[in-house]
Write a structure and sequence with these properties.
The chain is α/β, with parallel strands linked by helices. Helix content is about 20%, strand content about 15%.
């Protein structure tokens, strides 16, 4: 008999409340609540609304039908920690020496990384808090803490009033971390109940702070492996935990919980002033023969499109945003979110702050924008195992730039140049550098010059 899931109530009786400061915030009734859902390793093709033909995601599909669906959104990196760093700071993650997934201290050194995001970095939650918002981080962090990193800064130093997080954080929730690892069968909140738990925490936070503007980073660890569905009576990772069967089981539950979040917002009568954004940190792994990447080339840990070209939906229930709109022209980056969300929230940017993105708030509110600056990425500073690699066909050069419809990839030594016209060839199957030598040379110089602006790592960075 299958184990029945009992969803946690909005007010989690018997469980510890989130940690919270007592500082009073100014009233924010004229500013929207913003809930930013960052899925983990969720591919472009995982959602029915984005062409996932065999994936049952009715609630996400409905979210797209009721909101704005973007076809050209990019994460800041094709792997977790730098992607999250770029989103949080609006800056290229290499500027903060976060270039791969944060791991052990030795692994971080091998990847030329710091052990955590330094608190001197500007952060979106801190800026929102200074602008009168109540702020919360709920879910995966992966910007410092866990493994043998015990000195990562606590959440309040990044600007969060409240927090609830997993093992890869400075302050892990004990209900999620019975052992010293990311997941175990002994966890009080089981692997298949985590997203429900995070949704409950989010709704509880919104309920307790109704009448005040709220900014919530809701970062579940679905759809990252292990895929442990509710059919696992034995509460152990099955041998086929990366199987397509288990993937679909977890996806169905994840989609249901996103629907429950949206319905919960309506039940709390907050829909008239709440915006919800849904996207992913990077491409899928495993990609199931490319189907999870929407048939685009690449996957997690690749600078081809499948590694960082993500689904992106922005939703509100009351129709302030256009309903059922598709934006297939605005090129939007995670680096744009800092400026754009501050603009939407009427929050002042930090003094002297300049993001590496641009203000795309008009696009987020339903008016397509033309991008006037290029988008840059890097991945893989060296060939150590600290930088995971996908299968051979998905391994990319380690620098990429998109400018208009053109995308160029190149190694930082100038080798392996690839040029694609994404308007004509989004799947990156037709390399055209020989046909367009002037464009190739221009973008190559642009990419290599940009890479030179990123600081080189030294072992003194963590001191």
């Amino acid at each position: 008999m299958k184990r029945k899931i009992h969803y946690l109530p909005f007010i989690l009786s018997g469980l510890p409340l989130l940690s919270c400061t007592d500082k009073k915030q100014t009233s924010g009734t004229d500013t929207p609540n913003i809930i930013f859902i960052l899925s983990d390793d969720m591919g472009y093709g995982d959602i029915g609304a984005y062409g996932g033909k065999f994936n049952p995601t009715p609630y996400l599909d409905q979210m797209a039908e009721e909101g704005i669906k973007f076809y050209q959104y990019y994460s800041a990196s094709p792997i977790s920690s730098p992607s999250r760093c770029g989103l949080l700071t609006g800056k290229h993650p290499g500027k903060y020496h976060i270039t791969s997934y944060l791991q052990t201290k030795e692994g971080n050194r091998n990847a030329e990384m710091n052990d955590f995001l330094k608190t001197e970095a500007p952060t979106l939650p801190r800026t929102m808090k200074e602008g009168g918002y109540k702020t919360a981080h709920i879910g995966k962090w992966h910007l410092g803490g866990g493994r043998d990193v015990y000195d990562a800064p606590p959440f309040p130093e990044y600007g969060y009033d409240e927090y609830c997080s997993t093992y890869e954080s400075p302050q892990a929730d004990p209900l999620l971390t019975a052992t010293d690892w990311i997941w175990s069968p002994q966890d009080s909140i089981k692997r298949w109940e985590r997203t429900a738990y995070f949704v409950d925490k989010t709704l509880d936070f919104l309920k307790r702070h109704s009448g005040e503007p709220c900014f919530v980073n809701l970062w579940p660890d679905d759809m990252h492996t292990p895929w442990v569905g509710n059919m696992e009576e034995q509460q152990e990772i099955p041998k086929d935990y990366e199987s397509e069967k288990n993937f679909r089981t977890v996806l169905i539950e994840y989609d249901r919980q996103i629907g429950r979040l949206l319905q919960g917002i309506k039940s709390l009568n907050l829909e008239k002033n709440t915006i919800v954004i849904f996207t992913s940190d990077n491409g899928p792994a495993p990609s199931f023969r490319g189907s999870r990447a929407g048939s685009m080339r690449g996957c997690k840990a690749s600078l081809f499109e499948g590694g960082m070209h993500m689904p992106f939906i922005i939703w509100d229930a009351k129709g302030i945003l256009p309903k059922g709109k598709i934006d297939n022209t605005s090129v939007v980056s995670a680096l744009d979110m800092f400026e754009s969300l501050c603009s939407i929230a009427n929050v002042k940017l930090p003094e002297g702050y300049k993001s590496d993105g641009m203000n795309m708030s008009n696009a987020l509110l339903g008016k397509p924008q033309q991008r006037n600056i290029p988008v840059f990425w890097e991945y893989r500073r060296n060939d150590s195992e600290a930088f995971p690699k996908p299968h051979d066909k998905d391994i990319s050069p380690n620098i990429a730039v998109r400018d208009g419809d053109w995308k160029l990839l190149v190694n930082n030594d100038g080798s392996e140049v690839m040029l694609f016209n994404l308007h004509d060839n989004l799947r990156e199957t037709l390399e055209v550098s020989g046909k367009y030598p002037e464009i190739t040379q221009k973008l190559k110089e642009m990419a290599l010059n940009w890479r030179k602006t990123l600081p080189e790592y030294t072992n003194h960075q963590n001191e």
